[in-house]
Structures are given as C-alpha cells and as structure tokens.
Amino acid sequence: MKRFIAVALVLAMVSSATKAQTAFGSAYNPDYRTITTAVPFLIITPDSRAGGMGDLGVSTTPDVSSIHWNPAKLAFIEETQGFGISYSPWLNNLVPDISLSYLSYYHKLGRRQALGASMRYFSLGQIQFTDELGNDVGIFSPNEFAIDMAYSLQLSDNLSAGVALRYINSNLTGGQYVQGLQTRPGQSAAADFSMFYKSEEFDAGDLDAIWTFGVNISNIGAKLSYSESGNRDFLPTNLRIGTGMLFEV
Fold first, then answer.
1. pLDDT per residue over 140-157, tens digit each?
2. Buried-state track 49-77, b at ≥16 Cβ within 10 A, e below 16
3. How far is CA 51 from CA 46, 57, 210, 216, 226, in A?
4. What CA–CA distance (Å, rounded) separates 241 from 243?
5. DSSP state of 61
6. What Rg value do the Cα atoms of the chain yield, rounded?
7. What is the β-pairing status of strands 207-221 and 186-198?
8. Longest dimension (CA), the chain
9. What is the enclosing helix (H) or strand (E) of 206?
10. What is the 3 state secondary structure string of 102-128?
11. How far apart are CA 221 and CA 238, in angstroms?
12. Model-level pTM?
C-alpha cells in the first residue's frame, strides 16, 4: 500500500508539472494569453513622505502630493496653494542614470474646492541599441512622462470626491525598427476617481483623534501601443483603499 501511494504521488506530480509547462513554459502557445501592462512608472511612489511610510498615501492627511495618491484629499488642505518638487534616483546601485522627477501644484477655490496639476518624468538613462547581429544602431535616452490635472470637491464637512485626468507619453525606442516595424512613442489618456472621508475629532483615551478613510481607482484608460502592429498593452490600473488615525499629542 505504501508503494502504491508513493507511485501515485509521483505520477500526480509529473502530471502537474507537465500541465504547468504546457500552460506557462511555452511562449508560442497561441491559446495562452498573457496580460501585460505598460508604463509601470505611473505607480512608483513620487514623494519621500509616502515612500518612507511604505507607499502609504490614500488616507493620510492631505499634502501637495495628494494628486498621485488620492485627488479627493486636495479639498481638505487648509493652505490656499502649495508647490512641491522631488527627485528620486531609481535603482542607482544597479544603474546610475535612472531617475524619477515629480512636480506638483494645487490651488484652493474657496473653502470646499481645489484644483491641482502635476508632472512626473521618468528617465531611463542612455541605452545602446543593436540589431539582430549585434551591430550598433545608435544611442538613445528612453523617457516617459505623465501630466495630470485634478479637481476636488467637498460633498459635506467630512466627505470629498476627486477626479484626475492624465496624459501619458512613453518613448522607449526612439523610432527604431523592430521585426520590420517602425516603433513610435506610446501615448494614452487615463483618469482617476477617488473619495476621502475625515471624521470630527473624538476622544481616544487621553488623546484627541481623527479617523480617515480613502479610496482611489487610478489609471483607468485606453490601451497603449508602440507600433502600428495592433499589439496594445493595458495601463497599470490600480485600486487603493486605506484608513488611518491621527492623534493629537
């Protein structure tokens, strides 16, 4: 009986491995469709505050970088306007010339409304292109950028909603020919929809506290293509949901 069980387990593992290899190991299987996304730089943390807290930002207190994390938070900023700039070397221990730059600005329209704008620029340094035979065909500096416009409105004293519209441009090949097709910069447009809730102050033991909750669906938009071949990739649509407590000490 023990030998029978052992043989059955081996056969089961071999069968499972064969099925896995058939599904995932063959890159030329026409029946298998891999979902790929383009422009992953859109979900890279642009500011040091959120990055230092483990990429948290959807329900934290509002600041000038709220356009990226949750546009609805802009309506709760107390200052009339603000400007932010950040620069982040990206994986500089591996590649020294990759970086992310981020500019953001907001302006309050009265007490309950706010407008915001931002731009992120992702530089991938210099790349030496070669053809199929390894011959040099030129040096290019791939880059990607996105420009955002955001609007936020307080629906009540504790709840706000926001929307952001985004233009995306991704130039990774500099017009090189790939498999006989001329490449081009990928372009697309996307939108974010968000909500933010901020409670009144309440007693939490010996401290005064405020409870916050946020949700943001980002990068909802059209697929992006780098050539006329018809192959198009999804945008990195992302759902963020978070909550937090602010204590006054």
1. 889 999 999 999 999 999
2. bbeeeeebbbbbebbbbbbbbbbbbbbbb
3. 8, 9, 22, 17, 31
4. 7
5. P
6. 24
7. antiparallel
8. 80
9. none
10. EEEEEEEECCCEEEEEEEEEEECCCEE
11. 11
12. 0.81
